[in-house]
Amino acid sequence: MRCKSNPKIVFEKLFGDIANGYNIEIVYENSRRLSYCEKTCKVTDEKYILSVSGKEVNICCSSEKGAFYALCDLARHIEETSVADGEYICSPSFAVRGYIEGFYGTPWKHESRKSVMALMAKNRMNTVYHAPKDDLFHREKWREKYPEAELASLKELVDCAKERYMDFYWCIAPGLSMKYSDTAEFEALMEKTKQLYSIGITDFGLLLDDIDEELAFDEDRVAFGETVNAHIELINRYYSALKEFDSSIRLTVCPTLYHGKGNEYYISKLGKNISPLVSVFWTGRDICSRELTSPEAVRFIESTYHKPLYWDNYPVNDCSMYNEMHISPIINRDPDLYKYSEGIISNCMEYAECSKIPLITFADYLWDSENYDPQKSWEGAIRQVIGKENADNFIIFADHLYTSCLKDANSRRMYDAFEKIETVFKAGDNQKAVALAEAYLGKMNACREYLKQDLPVCRELSKWSEKFFVSCDIMNKIFEYIKTNDEKLIEDLLMLIEKYEAMPARLSNDVNIRDELKNIQKFIKKEI
Questions:
Q1: Nearest CA-CA partner of 199 in 159, 164, 171, 172
Q2: Are 170 and 137 in contact (CB under 8 A)?
Q3: Dihedrals φ, ψ of 52, to 5°?
Q4: Is the Cα torsion angle 287, 290, 292, 297 positive or negative in sign?
Q5: pLDDT tens sequence for the chain (528 residues)
Q6: Which has the closest alpha carbon to 86: 95, 73, 101?
Q7: Fold classified for 7-90
Q8: Cα dihedral angle (332, 335, 340, 342), rounded to 10 degrees?
Q9: For 95-111, what is the HEC assignment?
Q10: Which burial class, exposed, middle or buried, applies to 357 when counting CB atoms under 10 A from its CB (0-12, 13-18, 19+)?
Q11: Which residue, 31, 89, 367, 399, shows the most beta carbons closer than 10 Å to its own?
């Protein structure tokens, strides 16, 4: 890191007095055991040894960053239950662990940005990219400098990131309208960049994604022939100019072809003709990749001479995915992917509070990918974001929000509960079956009450929770029908089902409730 701050002070800002009663000693040591990760075979400033004996805590590390992560680790253990005595030797799998505000839709509010950043720092992420697609000064008005108010807000974010030992990348996306052969255009790019450098930004992103694959201007076609040649020239010129006024500056680029096999003409030529020190974003086989594998990363390295820096399009739910809410854990990323990539940057949803849940699972995977447990991580993330007292009930709702590019199956907990109820019922233990059904419905109804609260996360979930409320009404009515066999309830049920089916939000894989109701009717009549 290029900044210094007291890790204990930052820790207290994030966690308050959670460690009250603990005697914490931090010892810095510039040695192999505290600065070299045997797993990754890399020198790191993020390694630490956390030793706990009762209320006595000893932290050994080589840097303030390592001390901060050790304190965060300690706090998470305290928040969850307690800290078991022992020695914990910790270092990250991935060098780059972060997220990007890179979606189409309403950009996050300033306070939301700070809130997400603080939580991700607590979970040992170290990188944030600022690239909201619908920020006019990022894309459409890329030539124009930020007004004073917007610039001041960005500076506050930069300062927050530095204080939390995070690298803050500011990104610009000029590709929609830039004339690459025009010197004045490049000068405008540099003037804009210098404005951001003036507030302390030393990490930049040049994004050339989601633009026409063909050159738009005759002058560019004459000068470069192909788009890839124009992009190579722009990247090299920009990187060289950045290094001229600060040799510590880092650059990440997003190519126009940012997904595929990794050996296509454009990305292969681009990678081999830009500096190996420039990071290259890649989303994997698809725009939203179901899996990221080590063999595919190796092919990318062989073709481009760069390790991919994954722009992972999860949990983002923009464009055609707008009816889905992505709060399930990250899955299907190879445990050893850290060996063949720079890291992973998760692209968030416009729903900042909801994004926190999957982001925490990303943080867990990126820190220790070989021991990552998606379910355990997800449940822990829900406890962090929702709170321990509401977590178990909230999971009943979150169980219906697994549908995404990662997974089609949904509502596993609900199906398991109903299968158990049906099995018990068929075995003749009606009393136990009723008790099991009442217990599940009780959790559904408790979750409904939580989701009705005027909280940021509840407001973001309203599109999906409103449909969940109708499903609660349906389930309660079905249970009433099972207990009473009152056929008059069927009409009410059909009206509720019609209402449910008309709601666009994706929930429970939108199972055919009408067919399920018919099966229940047949079963009840058979039992009678």
A1: 159
A2: no
A3: -125, 130
A4: negative
A5: 233 457 777 777 667 777 778 899 999 999 999 999 999 999 999 999 999 999 999 999 999 999 999 999 998 888 887 788 999 999 999 999 999 999 999 999 999 999 999 999 999 999 999 999 999 999 999 999 999 999 999 999 999 999 999 999 999 999 999 999 999 999 999 999 999 999 999 999 999 999 999 999 999 999 999 999 999 999 999 999 999 999 999 999 999 999 999 999 999 999 999 999 999 999 999 999 999 999 999 999 999 999 999 999 999 999 999 999 999 999 999 999 999 999 999 999 999 999 999 999 999 999 999 999 999 999 999 999 999 999 999 999 999 998 888 987 778 888 888 888 888 888 888 888 888 888 999 999 999 999 999 999 999 999 999 999 999 999 898 888 877 888 888 889 899 999 998 999 998 765 566 666 666 655 555 554
A6: 73
A7: Double Stranded RNA Binding Domain (3.30.160)
A8: 80
A9: CEEEEEECCCCCCCCHH
A10: buried
A11: 367
The amino acid occupying position 89 is I
List the domain boundaries for the chain: 7-90, 96-385, 412-527
What are the distances in angstroms from CA 513 to CA 164, 298, 395, 517? 48, 46, 21, 6
Contact between 368 and 326 under an 8 Å Cβ cutoff? The reply is no
Structure tokens at 398: 């979150």
Q: What secondary structure does DSSP assign to 189-256, as a single string?
A: HHHHHHHHHTTT--EEEEE--SS-SS--SHHHHHHHSSHHHHHHHHHHHHHHHHHHH-TT-EEEEE-S
Tokens of 203: 């990490």
Give domain 96-385's CATH architecture: Alpha-Beta Barrel (3.20)
- Name which of 380, 371, 381, 363 is nearest 96 in CA terms: 363
Instruction: Output helix, strand, coil percentages for the chain, rounded to the nearest 5.
Output: 50, 15, 35
Q: Which two tokens stand for residue 221?
A: 């076609």
* Whether 472 contacts 514, CB under 8 Å: no
Tokens of 153: 């807000």
- 68 contact partners, CB below 8 Å, separation of at least 6: 7, 10, 11, 121, 164, 165
Altogether, the residues listed in the chain come to a count of 528
